[in-house]
Amino acid sequence: MSRNILFALWCTAQAALMSFSATADTLPPVAIAIHAGAGTMNRHDMDRQTEAQIRGVLLEAVQKGHSVLRLGGTSLDAVQAAVTHLEDSPFFNAGRGAVFNADGKNEMDASIMDGSGLQAGAVAGVHNIRNPILLARKVMTDSPHVMLMGEGALVFAREHEIEFAEDDYFYTEQRWEQLQKAKLQGSDKSAGANWQYPDRWMSTVGAVALDSHGNLAAATSTGGMTNKSYGRVGDSPIIGAGTYADNRSCAVSATGHGEYFIRATVARDICARMQFQGVSLQQAADAVVMGELVKMGGTGGIVSVDHKGNIALVFNTEGMYRASVNTAGDIQVAIYQDDDAVAEATP
Amino acid sequence: MSRNILFALWCTAQAALMSFSATADTLPPVAIAIHAGAGTMNRHDMDRQTEAQIRGVLLEAVQKGHSVLRLGGTSLDAVQAAVTHLEDSPFFNAGRGAVFNADGKNEMDASIMDGSGLQAGAVAGVHNIRNPILLARKVMTDSPHVMLMGEGALVFAREHEIEFAEDDYFYTEQRWEQLQKAKLQGSDKSAGANWQYPDRWMSTVGAVALDSHGNLAAATSTGGMTNKSYGRVGDSPIIGAGTYADNRSCAVSATGHGEYFIRATVARDICARMQFQGVSLQQAADAVVMGELVKMGGTGGIVSVDHKGNIALVFNTEGMYRASVNTAGDIQVAIYQDDDAVAEATP
């Protein structure tokens, strides 16, 4: 336990160092923001060890992405670095930590978008892919398509030597227990069954970044909903809903109750408001997440960065796992709504 | 041959009658527009019999939808009536006339959206469903989800008594020959293979409508691309790309090279420009289809209607199968770019 807290402190110290050197750089401004799910999080529900571990992984992920940007790398590589790190963690519902669907399988979705040319790649309903975000990127770069689903996406993955992992890689006791609990709470094998347990879909990971070339990118990856019906597609692989990036406005990655995010085309709507109304990123994100979504009853949040490097992290839930490094190099890692005050390692 | 031309003339006469009685109605204004694909159509490529038959089916479809509206029915029922009629025709790449994918199967997508509450339903990669648009609507009304794909969508279809059809229902000699030709032109079993034959994806059917209650709806259905890779998802089932409806702005259904339509979130973008820029439907549709899409290299078109009943039919290809009935009851059935002059049955 104390080792984990020490580790988190060490990460914080590292972050402070990195932050200092970042501001000393002569590169044009870069910025990055990540999330790892939004939901009913409060301080009383989580033990301190788990919280410290989660903050540690969030910090590592945002640092990995930021390192790419600081070295003059692309926003695409930065969001990919951050998201693969989150996918590799068992804490979050993506990649290794993906939840089990109603058939006891891990069924994952991911998407990525390049704001410079509006290139995009997405996969839906894939299994045994170690890092779905790498497959989404391969679809973007090496196929004539934007979106591949199910077995067809897996055939493409094999042809392009994407890494697969065995079932036990994705097995975490916590996720299996979640499935058993969800099954006890309600029989939901049918896609048409009741849908009463919102905490089941509150997780997804994602990242947005602005690189020193002035290019934006966004990436999102998810394991879907615990006990979800086979074949359900949420917002994460939908370009315009869970992911969007356009150099003319902003890059957005979303997490929340996907059905609402699809119907409101959340990611695209935030960019569209910036582009067509001339409002700020924060105003656009607030209007969609705290306005449109709340009116519809859709819960969740987004991380976003605009073409100037402004960052907006907006959620209408109790908490959202999030981290960011702004253009000044300030690092923030936060979970709860009133967490902004405890930003870490501000120089 | 002459029977078909006679039939088309009879339809035209019926349309004139309907048009006359529609204008005499006391209902608030209603309007509908449909499409059945866009592409490299020119008068020299098509024999007159086929052309007359196609115009006949377009007229029937738009009339079916318009009848629903004239009787005070909903825009959802109107677009469904029009799209099921187009799906039932062997001429268009949707439902019965769906093309064959690289595995010699019919793999279909569809989506529907209700502009009054932003409700939506979509299915991707389904086979042996007689009318995929009915399944999309069932997903909207009877499941907690917006989008279901593949086998999961078929399980849902069986549970909800959606009509299935045998393989031979979907077999049309023309589509089979197209597949053989496409296979000869290029081996494309891989999702990553070359993609050189744009005429393969130029077809999809769709409808948009405004009802007398002031509600908008949009629906789109497709059989995808001839010889397409198994698992490819185009824009038709993507809410925001191929289909969008919002009472605050407009309803849009698209047809064309789906990858570009996804990346540009075409349907949502047209609605967003109306909503946020305050431009007319025609201006918004022109900006997206003749501006954004052309810049990207994306070919295709859209049909759209706004909350006042204005209609915009815009395409950047040589032709688009289309038909509409405006608020004055004027009926138009057209194929080519210079076809507007030969609108049928204008009272």
Written account of the structure:
Two copies of one chain form a homodimer. By secondary structure, the first copy, chain A, is of the alpha+beta class. Chain A has a single domain, classed as Glutamine Phosphoribosylpyrophosphate, subunit 1, domain 1. Chain A contains ten helices and 13 strands. In chain A, α1 (2-24) runs parallel beside α2, α2 packs antiparallel against α3 (75-88) and α9 crosses α10 (281-296). Chain A is globular. Residues 16-24 and 187-201 of chain A have low confidence and may be disordered. Chains A and B meet through β3, β4, α5, β7 and α8 of A and β3, β4, α5, β7 and α8 of B. β7 of chain A pairs antiparallel with β4 of chain B, so a sheet runs across the interface.
Task: Present the secondary structure layout.
Two copies of one chain form a homodimer.
Chain A: H1 2-24, E1 31-39, H2 48-70, H3 75-88, E2 108-114, E3 119-126, H4 132-142, E4 147-149, H5 150-159, H6 167-170, H7 173-185, E5 205-210, E6 216-222, E7 232-233, E8 243-245, E9 250-256, H8 258-263, H9 266-277, H10 281-296, E10 300-306, E11 311-315, E12 319-325, E13 331-336
Parallel strand pairs in A: 3-4
Antiparallel strand pairs in A: 1-5, 1-12, 2-3, 2-6, 5-6, 8-9, 9-10, 10-11, 12-13
Helix pairs in contact in A: 1-2, 2-3, 3-4, 9-10
